[in-house]
Structure to design on (227 residues):
């Protein structure tokens, strides 16, 4: 049981390049999340998926798109990377979207945009 | 949107009990208080959750008074490995399937030998 996995672990992009961050979970969870964490800051929600086939914007969705490919996988795409998107990106999942969710986090992807 | 406020940092010594207080003056009726722990270069990890009064598990205790405007995470007999950032969240759901999850800046706990 690997939990939540993310690829890649590290990535360096040039301004304007695009890339997709991959996330997968093997816990049969319904809900999945993408966060970003800037140095010395807390996590901010980018996008959220309550269940397969649904996605919703979080606090900071601009510049990102997501795809809930199936129940296991939730990808985050940067269409035209900007230096302001340099951050650590965490994917998480939870069994349901109820109030008492426990979120399980992946190890993160460290992205640098030059 | 229930905002939480925590101290930026705290220091403690090994073997001491540590109490981290979180303020959440605008907490909604159905919000639960949840604490996460984050080590450097790792994603956050769930510690404990509660609605009112006291909750205890093998890792920590959570005290929430009747007015629910604050909560206290208590870590008994901390060790060096408890050095981490601790986040207090007020879980909230908006209408439909959207949800605003707010991790503040957290409290950096440093345990000294």
């Amino acid at each position: 049981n690997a939990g939540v996995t993310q690829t890649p672990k590290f990535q360096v992009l040039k301004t304007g390049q695009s890339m997709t961050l991959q996330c997968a979970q093997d816990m049969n969870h319904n809900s999945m999340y993408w966060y970003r964490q800037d140095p010395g800051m807390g996590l901010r929600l980018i996008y959220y998926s309550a269940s397969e086939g649904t996605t919703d914007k979080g606090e900071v969705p601009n510049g990102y798109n997501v795809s809930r490919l199936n129940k296991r996988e939730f990808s985050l795409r940067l269409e035209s990377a900007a230096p302001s998107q340099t951050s650590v990106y965490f994917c998480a999942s939870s069994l349901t979207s109820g109030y008492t969710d426990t979120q399980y986090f992946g190890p993160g992807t460290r992205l640098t945009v030059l | 949107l229930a905002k939480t406020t925590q101290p930026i940092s705290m220091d403690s010594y090994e073997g001491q009990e540590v109490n981290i207080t979180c303020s959440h003056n605008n907490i909604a009726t159905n919000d639960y208080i949840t604490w996460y722990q984050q080590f450097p270069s790792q994603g956050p990890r769930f510690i404990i959750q509660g609605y009112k009064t006291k909750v205890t598990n093998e890792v920590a205790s959570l005290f929430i008074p009747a007015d629910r405007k604050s909560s206290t995470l208590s870590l008994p007999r901390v060790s060096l490995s408890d050095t981490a950032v601790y986040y207090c969240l007020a879980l909230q759901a908006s209408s439909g399937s959207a949800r605003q999850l707010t991790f503040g800046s957290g409290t950096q706990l440093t345990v000294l030998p």
About this structure: The longest strand of chain A covers residues 87-94.
